[in-house]
Amino acid sequence: MKKHLHDESGLFFERLRSHRMVASIKEPKQIEIALSLRNQLSGVFLLTGHIGVIKGYVDVFKSHQLPVFLHMEKIGGLSTDFYGMDYLAKVIKPTGIITTKTNVVKTAKKMGLFTIQRFFLVDTEGIENLSKSLTQIEPDIIELMPARIPEMIGKIKKFTTLPIITGGLLFDRSHVMEVFKYGATAVSSSQSVLWHETYSEEEEKLRIIV
Questions:
Q1: What is the CATH number of domain 2-209?
Q2: pLDDT tens digit string along 76-116?
Q3: Cα–Cα distance for residue pair 65/33, rounded to 1 Å
Q4: Domain spans of the chain?
Q5: 3-state helix, strand, coil in the chain (%, to 5)
Q6: Which pTM was predicted?
């Protein structure tokens, strides 16, 4: 099982190099949109569903070779204790999980799951909590919210080398390109209009020249 999960996480990192947009899915109707744009996305974050339907969602994305991550605090009926996470890893089999909780990261890593920890930077205490959390356990990737304070990415990169995904309050392409300038690996967005575009430094240079 761990080799299978390792292969999937490797696919996600590979896709991040060429596709810097992650689709955050907040309602089922967005699933079809994400699937139609799978060649432009690095993966999907599922923030909708419940234990009765979530395996079906995961299986659909995996059948299209699109890495899929479950936000543990957004999926109804999923327990984050040892037994719940064991069921998640062995039966539902997502590429990984997203959580705001350090103890959930610890349990998920024991199960061999790829982990993304979400942090909300609403004040300086948020940065301090992030730094403290990383001394206890490191996730595989950090997700910073909201994305509209891109200078904070640089501050976080001073004390960690982990890849950073950022999202929240992104409304147009200029917002996305701004966070890349500050060192974000990728962005996550529930605005499906942003999923249709591709994002790379080379493309942005050409836009400026034109």
A1: 3.20.20.70
A2: 998 999 999 999 999 999 999 999 999 999 999 999 999 99
A3: 15
A4: 2-209
A5: 45, 20, 35
A6: 0.89
